Amino acid sequence: MNLSFEDLTGTFSVTDVAIALALSFVLSLLIAWVYRATHRNVSYSQSYVQTLVILGMLVAVIMLVVGSNIARAFALVGALSVVRFRNAIKETRDVGFIFLVMAVGMAVGTRFYTLGAVAAVAISLVIYLMFRFNWFQLNVRRQVVKVQVPADGDYTHVISDVLIRHTDEFELVSMESIRGGALTELMYTVKIKKGTEPGDLISALSERNSGQGVTVLTGYDQTDL
User: Fold this and answer.
1) Residue 156 shares a structural domain with residue 102
2) Is the pTM of this model over 0.85?
3) Any bridge partners for residue 149, and if so which?
4) 72, 121: one domain
5) How confident is the model at residue 223 (pLDDT cuts 50, 70, 90)?
6) Count of domains for the chain
7) What is the 3-state secondary structure (H, E, C) of the chain?
8) Degrees to nearest 5, angle at CA 175 with 224 and 150
9) Same domain for 78 and 115?
10) Which one of 2, 20, 122, 201 has the lowest number of neighbouring Cβ atoms within 10 Å?
11) CA 132, 216, 204: angle at the middle one, nearest 5?
């Protein structure tokens, strides 16, 4: 029995298809586990991780179908252009994992099995090392402070006096009119002094803003806003 498929792109056997699907599944599964193990933020999505595995296998199949046929490649681009992706990617890191599984799927689908396996393992190891040893971590911890004040007065100097006493440094990053112009929301990035608790800063600001809202966001660089 002839178990080979012959077309304009060349010849590949059932064994080639099975190896491509199995290897892309295993390598995509490895990448998905690395993503799960190194994820820190609160926006973890099981659906996204499962999609990584599916995407790796799909790209491998696509590369088998396209092969070296340029016309078929352009037809595939046209077909995929009608697809609309409406889910926003919250982290640049998530985009990196998508490109990683696509690259591995392309390597396996074009039957560069060793390249796909080595690349998946090596890059996954680099990702884990960056997570394990906190590469490029910024040691300065900063907070975001949101203060709501009445719109009928200039409260920036009053708020600045409080921040000078409770923080080592601060910077006004935005001013926004809210509640139909009745209030102004001031947003600062601050570095709270050692020994000062966020609650102390909230209490001090609440005494100066006529009882309006005060919010202190800590660890905003590690959570999704």
Assistant:
1) no
2) no
3) 184
4) yes
5) very low
6) 2
7) CCCEEEECCEEEEHHHHHHHHHHHHHHHHHHHHHHHHHCCCCCCCHHHHHHHHHHHHHHHHHHHHHCCCHHHHHHHHHHHCCCCCCCCCCCHHHHHHHHHHHHHHHHHHCCCHHHHHHHHHHHHHHHHHHHHCCCCCCCCCCEEEEEEEECCCCCHHHHHHHHHHHEEEEEEEEEEEEHHHCEEEEEEEEEECCCCCHHHHHHHHHCCCCCCCEEEEECCCCCCC
8) 115
9) yes
10) 2
11) 135
Read off the pLDDT of residues 8-57 as tens digits, 9 standing for 90 and up: 445 677 888 899 999 999 999 999 999 999 998 777 889 999 999 999 99
Identify whether the C-beta of residue 209 lies closer than 8 Å to the C-beta of residue 170: no
- Domain final residue pick, 80, 101, 132: 132
Q: Quick one: 15 and 44 in the same domain?
A: yes
In a domain, 223, yes or no: no
Q: What is the pLDDT of the chain when averaged over all its residues? A: 82
Of residues 127, 146, 95, the one with CA closest to residue 31: 127
| Same-domain status, 39 and 77 | yes
What is the percent of the chain where pLDDT is above 90? 28
